[in-house]
Amino acid sequence: MPRILHFGLGAFHRAHQAAFTQDAGGWQIEAVSMRNPALSDALNAAGGRWHLVERVPEGPRVLPMTVIVRAHCLATDPAGTLARMADPEVQVVTATVTEKGYGFHPATRKLDVDHPSIAPDLKDPTAPTGLVGALAEGLRLRRAAGLSGLTIISCDNLTGNGHLLARLVGDFARLRDPALADWIAATCTFPDSMVDRITPASSDATFAAVRAATGLDDPLAVETEPFRQWVIEDRFAGPRPAWEKAGALLVADVAPYEVMKLRMLNGSHSLIAYLGAVAGLEAVRDVMAVPAFRSLVRRHMQAAADTLPAIPGFDPATYTADLLRRFENPAIRHLCLQIATDGSQKLPPRIFAPAAEALSQGKTANAFALVTAVWIRFLQGRADTGGPIAPKDPLADALMLAAGSDVAAVAKVLGLLDRLPFSSEDWCSRVSGHLDALRKMGAVAYAEALT
Asked: What is the pLDDT of residue 419?
C-alpha cells in the first residue's frame, strides 16, 4: 500500500491531513516527530491508533483513527527516518512544522543560513534536525537509490507555501551539491496548499469524551471542529491519495484561497486571541460571547474581504457568517493563548499585507491598525484584569521590551519588524491612538465605545 511520510506529528496533522487520508482510503501514513520522541513512541506503542473527537453543539462524535501505521522521531533517529524517503512505497511527503520551522528571511523569503533550523544542518547534513535539511537529505538518499522524485506538500499557514518550500530546499541542496538541486527541480513537485480546521489543545474533557464513548483511556486523543478544508494545487510528481473523495479541492491556483483564509479567518482569529488575552478571557467562544468583541470581529472580516482578489463562486457574506458560527461554537474550547503565539511571524501576511493594500488604495486600514494595537497591548505583558501575560514568540524578549508602556511603543515594536511592506505615519498614528485607548479604557470598554 502506498505511503505518505509526514513531518510534524502534532494535533493538527492528526485532525486534518490524517483524517482526509483515512477517509479517502487506499493510503497509509508514517509520521515524524521532529524533536520529542515521547509522542512517536506513544503512537507506536498504541499501534498507530488514536481517537478524533469532533465537537458539535449536540455532543461529541468520537472517531477511531488508524491511518498512521508507524511513527519516527527525527531527533533520535535521523538516518532511519530519512531512509523512508528512499523507499518506493513513499510517494508523497507532507509537513506541518509551523511558520517558524522553515528557516527563511521573512523580508526576502530566501534561505537564512544562520537560522537555528538551518545552520546546524548545513554543518552536518546527514543528521538534520529541521524540515528543510531533512527533505534535502531524504531526497539525496532517494536519488542515490535511483528512484523517481516526490510530491512534497507544505500544510503550514504561509503564503505560497509550496513554492517557498521548493525554493528553500533547492537553495539548501545547492549549497551541498548543485547536481542534487537540479535533480530535485527536475523530478519533484511542491504544490501550494491551504488548510483549515480549528484544533484546540487536548484537555481532560477530550479524554473524558473518548472514555465515555469507548470505555478506553486514550492519551493520544485529539479534538477538533466538524468543519475541515483542504485546497491543493493540482501538481503532483506521481501517485497521490484520492483526497477529493474526502472533500479536498484540487485547483490550478491556490493563491486566492489562501489569501482569503489568511486575511478573513486567520486575521480575525488573531484579533480574537489578543482581545481575549488582554481582557482575561480564556477561549475564542468566550470572546465571541462579548457582543462588542463579536461586532469588531465581524467588522474586521468585512475589511479583510474588501482586500481580496476575485475568487470564482466565493461569497464574502456567506463565508463571514460561516466563520462567525464556527468561532461561536460552544463545544469548542480553543484557547486564546494557543492562537496568540508567534505574532511576529503570523501578522505580516494576516494583517500587514492587507493593510498595505488598503493604504495603497487610499483607505485608512483602520481595522488592521486596531489588530496591531491589540497585539502590542498584549505584548505589554499584563491583562486588564491584572494577571500576567507571557507571549510566546521568536522575538518575544525584544518585542516585550519595545512594547513597554510609553507613547513610543508602536514605533519601537514595528521597528523590529523590518518586513513591514509600507510606511505610513497616519496608519501608525491610528495604531497609537487605539493602543492609548486600550490602555486607558480596557479592551471591553473600548470595544463598546467603537461599536
From this structure: 55
- The residue among 300, 380, 338 whose CA lies nearest residue 202 is 338
For residue 114, what is its C-alpha cell?
544562520
Residue 450 CA: distances (Å) to CA of 77, 292, 410: 55, 8, 20
Q: Beta strand pairing status for 229-233 and 193-196?
A: antiparallel
Q: Which residues contact 378 (CB under 8 A, 6 or more apart)?
A: 274, 277, 278, 340, 343, 389, 391
User: In degrees to the nearest 10, what's the CA dihedral of 294, 296, 298, 300?
Assistant: -150
Angle among Cα 154, 158, 41 to the nearest 5 degrees reads: 45
Cell of 328: 461561536
d(CA 102, CA 226): 29
Q: Among the listed ranges 171-175, 379-383, 428-432, which one has the minimum average pLDDT value?
A: 428-432
Q: What is the pLDDT of residue 408?
A: 79
Give the pLDDT confidence score for residue 421 in this predicted structure.
52
d(CA 91, CA 10): 21
Please give the pLDDT value at position 415.
83
Query: Is the C-alpha dihedral spanning 292, 297, 298, 303 positive or negative?
Result: positive
Q: Are 70 and 9 in contact (CB under 8 A)?
A: no
- Helix, strand, coil share (%) of the chain residues, nearest 5: 50, 15, 35
pLDDT at 354 > cutoff 70: yes
- Residue holding cell 484561497? 257
Q: How confident is the model at residue 426 (pLDDT cuts 50, 70, 90)?
A: confident
- The predicted model gives 389-416 an average pLDDT of 88
Q: How far apart are CA 25 and CA 243, in angstroms?
A: 8
The DSSP-derived string for 176-209 is H-HHHHHHHHHH-B---EEEE---PPP-HHHHHH
